[in-house]
Amino acid sequence: MFSIDRLRALSTVATHGSIARAAETLHITPSGLSQKLAKLEREAGHRLLEPHGRSIRLTHAGRVLAGHAERLLSALTSAEADLADLHDEVLGPLRIGGVGSAVRTLLPRALDALAEEHPRLRPTVTDGEAVELMPFLLSGEIDLLLIESWANRPTFLPEGLTLRTLVSEDVCVALSARHPLSSRESLDLAELGDIPWASCPPGTEPYESLVQALRARGVEPEVRYTLTEHITQLSMVERNLAAALVPTMSRSPAPSGVRFARLRPGLRRDIQAAWLASTENPPVRACITAIEKAGPARPQYDG
């Protein structure tokens, strides 16, 4: 019979693609992990790993067994979660990561409710872009991640994640009140071909969505200001230095000299909760329920 511990070692190597990273994730030495894999090969009667350049890769037999291992570990995790639910105890650490606007508008009221209902829960929060935080979710260093997915550029997600859409919202274009088109209720991005843009850094969902949206309307974007926070982008917009694409949740607080217009054609952004299906637990489920009950904070902004 195969050892669960050794199957977990193989599954972790399959996920991370290297002995060193898998060992770090499992908090053991690379030599200790190699010994587990060698014993598993003897149990399986097949070679499970082979050299690949300076690294290793799974053989066909390794991939077959890793697939069974992943399903078995997922079933064991579900069993553990079900047993934990029998006691109805939501306690211990809950490590949350998320994009700034979601953290600011969705989490505070939800965490307040969780503190009332589950005082033994210990949540921690880290903000950042999904491209930065996703590796921490996949390695188990974050339990729950709030990500954004823009309609014209849906977020690519690795296998093994569970998703729940929490908010779906419109995206508007922000202009300075000094801009000639600022009084318009709606705008086509093709009308803004001569203005610089402010957005999040390259590689992030907002940046790539902006670039694709502009190119789809025949405009080659000039993203002059790469700023992580929407509120900082809006400070540039207010001075008529740039335009910006801003989702509803990020419109508050907006500087008084900023105006918003709907896009033609429209554009939407979803905020989604993502977590590893294999590590789902009562704290994660309790947090998602609290977010859904609380809903986003109501934005306060000018037209």
From TrEMBL:
GO MF, one example: DNA-binding transcription factor activity
Family: Belongs to the LysR transcriptional regulatory family.
A Pfam family of this chain: LysR_substrate
Protein name listed in UniProt: LysR family transcriptional regulator
Keyword Hydrolase carried by entry: no
GO cellular component: protein-DNA complex
Keywords assigned: DNA-binding, Transcription, Transcription regulation
Domain HTH lysR-type stretches: 2-59
InterPro entries in alphabetical order: LysR_HTH_N, LysR_subst-bd, WH-like_DNA-bd_sf, WH_DNA-bd_sf
Organism name: Streptomyces reniochalinae
